[in-house]
Amino acid sequence: MTVKRKLYGLVALGIFIAALVASVAVYGVASMSRASHSIFDNALLVNKNVSTLVVLFEQSRSLVRSISSDSSQETVAKAAAAFDAIDQKLADTSIDAFRSITNEGVREVVTSFIDSLDRSRQVSQDIFRAWLHGDKASAATLLSVHGASNEQAMRDALGTLTAFVDRLAADDLAALERTQRITIWVAVAVAAVMPFLIYLAFLVARQIAVPIASLTFAARDVERRKFKPDSIENVAAQRNELGSLARVFQKMAVDVQRREEELEAEVEARTHDLAAKNILLEKSQHRMETELDIARSLQGAMLPQRMPKHPSYSGRAIMRPARELGGDFYDFFIIGEDEIGLVIADVSGKGVPAAFFMAISRTVLQASARERRSAGECLAETNSILCEQNPLEMFVTVFYGILNLRTGVLNYANGGHNPPVVVREDGEVTQLPQTGGMAMGIMAGLVYQEGAVTLSAGDTLFLYTDGISEAMDGDGHEFTVDRLLASLSESHRQSLDIVVSSVTDAVSDFVGDAPQHDDMTYLVVRYKGPPGELATFNGARENAELAEPA
């Protein structure tokens, strides 16, 4: 017998017992209620209506007996009026009594009683009519003959009614006693069967609960990794749903434990392997950092550390890469006896590729410049060479100017770079006009137009990359060229060290804690005039000052 059938059988048995007990209880209560209501209703009806009829009948008979041959006509009339009122009440009460009776036996007996009462009322009415018409003989005859017989018939009917009611009450009480006895016997029977049913339910519940408890403990052992298949062998041997469940659980638990052991072994092996790889990775990271430090040092060494000594100018330069290696660069070099080349450039991208392309661009540009070409020709040749050797398709924006130290004339060409700023000795701040050139490395065969500007003694030339003008704060707002021009408004009164510090502080204050997202490079050169005019310009102390590559 399966567990499901056992449970269904137990439920069906419980439902049957509950229905049986409920039916017996309902039957007993209904029987007692009917018996009680029957007794109460019949008794109340008979007592009320019969008592009222008897009282009214006695009152009417008293009025009839109160009249004699000596009574005056006025006395007879008053008695007749009182009799009519009582007689009307008798008639109404008789009708109400008849209509309210529902028990057929009571109805039959009461009907007989009311018939006797009606006959007696009729005789009394005839007696009063005879008195009122002065026929005293007829009235005396009716009173002595018919009155006595009707009164006796009335009393006989009343006795019959009373006996019937008593018998009816006795029958109802007997039925009630039988119902009580049946109810008691049923209750005793249920009480006798209930312990057996409870014991049977306990056995069935135990047959279900014990295997479930065993499975529960087994599941806990699986969680603790202490499960033994033999612990639920008794349950697995059962040929029911619980046995099937136990067998499936055994197989599943064994598989889970085996897989956990395999997984632990795999994790342990992977952990050792990962630890070894982490060691190699740390070594590689250390080696890469060392190589990047060397590369950063080499990149810094590639840029000129000191401007060439000359009484006609002084300068400062700073390059701060956003990563370990940057793509910006600056350069200055002597061309002949009276000219100096000034370069500021920005390679696309960042990191190692930009650093390599920066080194190539600087080398090619400087080699072309030392052949005494003009600024535009130098950029055109450099662009052609870069386009031929550009597998990563990178490009570089560049400004290249040639400053004549005797005349102060700056001939320049711009390859898509930010225009430098000129700060005149009188404080005027302007940007050099653009020449419309394109960044180098994009397209070969380009021609770069040239521009020229004349610097006077005390004028300052500020060359920079877009890492300064496009420096961003935490909200993504840029520093802008306008802020740069504003920070240079007082630079004509300041030494180059202070000019560099002012620009650096202005950018740092604007950016705040936001990370640097692009390389920042600038080159500042102050023209002091031709060598013969240096006596009129107090700038000799700035000769041969160091540039500051970061």
Automatic annotation (TrEMBL):
Pfam families: 4HB_MCP_1 (PF12729), SpoIIE (PF07228)
Domain PPM-type phosphatase: 313-527
GO terms assigned for molecular function: phosphatase activity
Record key words, sorted: Hydrolase, Membrane, Transmembrane, Transmembrane helix
Entry keyword Nucleus: no
Annotated TM spans: 7-30, 182-205
Keyword hit for Thylakoid: no
The protein, known as: HAMP domain-containing protein
